[in-house]
Amino acid sequence: MGNILRSLQPQQQQQQEPLDPHGLAPDAAAIAALTRDLGSFESSSMVPEGLGQHVTSSKKAQINWYKCILEAYRNATPPRTPAEAAQLVATALNWIPRVDLEGILEFYNFPIPTSAAASSNQLPRALPDGVQFVLNTLPVNAKCIGDGDGFTAYVAVMDDPRESENVPQKVYEMVTERTQARIRRDYDRADTLRSTIDEAGYKIIIRSGSEILARKYRIRMRGIDAPELKMPYGKESKDALVKLIGGKSSRIYVYEQDQFGRYVGDIYCDSVFIQEQMLKNGHAWYFKNYDSRREFLEWERKARAACQGFWLNNPEKPWDWRRDERNGRHITTEVY
């Protein structure tokens, strides 16, 4: 740490230059202020007094942040510009709430790196009736699509204030501990912590070359019912959904949770209403027992008349198939 701190000491500034809030000239302030605070933290375990005015998390959380920043500085080439220092801090803390990450960068007058820049995925001004909240997901992994009406999606915590506010403190602590374990090259401990984070409903995901924390959501598409995988046309229905959303980010309007804990919602991808496409192309049934939208019925009727998808044959209703499986063959149906 000593060599790093010495390499970051500010050069002599002319007296006529204005001072920033940290008492340093602007050209040197961005890096030198962080250097000073890291040196102070290393000796006293105290975070900067004014930081609390820029972030929302507890002092305990702030101490964990500075541990990660300090370790990152120890293991990195000293940044030469405020932009490089900002990128180092953002990488070290890319798992914390976005509002807090931007608060730290603002505290040091650092620029906000592209990876931490404000997301355009904002909630609409007026949500449809019944919508509880909106999810803006990371690209959906094709392997996470279970069938034609269900999949698993992940939402980046740092991109969504609602998510960042609801992460359990224990999860944040495990992420911090895992980061420190990786810095120590204790990969067994890091892998164990990663598994525990997964069990808590979160996942460490690589985005743009950096690790981020994401929350896991099991999704059930509202108003449609696709063939089960073991049914005729089950694989074709799943493949159709993979083509529509696989590898792409989606926007999900969540209405409720079902009895299996899945989030039931309307899915949009590339401005396309996914349920509409599944119905129009004969890849799913209209689930009229759970939905009253007339357009869904009309889309199904047109697909049936045109013999689209499974309508080319005489398909069995998936709810009838599940009932017969339960009553006759007693085979457990997988829920995605």
Structure, explained:
- This protein has about 325 residues and is α+β, with helices and mostly antiparallel strands.
- It has two domains: about 1-115, no CATH class; about 135-155 and about 215-330, Beta Barrel (OB fold (Dihydrolipoamide Acetyltransferase, E2P)), CATH 2.40.50.
- The protein contains twelve helices and nine strands.
- Strand 3 (about 200-205) and strand 4 form a beta hairpin.
- Helix 3 runs parallel beside helix 7 (about 170-185), helix 7 (about 170-185) packs antiparallel against helix 8 (about 185-200) and helix 10 packs parallel to helix 11 (about 295-305).
- InterPro entries: SNase_OB-fold_sf, Staphylococal_nuclease_OB-fold, tRNAsynth_Ia_anticodon-bd.
- One of its GO terms (biological process) is tRNA aminoacylation for protein translation.
- This is TNase-like domain-containing protein.
- One of its GO terms (molecular function) is ATP binding.
Low-confidence stretches: 1-17, 20-24, 116-125
SSE run? HHHHHEEHHHEEEHEEEHEHH
What is the domain tally? 2
Q: Tell me the name of the CATH class of the largest domain.
A: Mainly Beta
Distance between the termini: 49 Å
- SS-derived structural category: alpha+beta
Give the biggest sheet. 7 strands, mixed
Shape: elongated
What fraction strand?
Answer: 5-15%
Percentage of residues in helical conformation:
40-55%
- Reported by name, the CATH topology of the largest domain is OB fold (Dihydrolipoamide Acetyltransferase, E2P)
Protein name: TNase-like domain-containing protein
GO molecular function: aminoacyl-tRNA ligase activity; ATP binding
Organism: Triticum aestivum (Wheat)
Domain TNase-like: 206-313
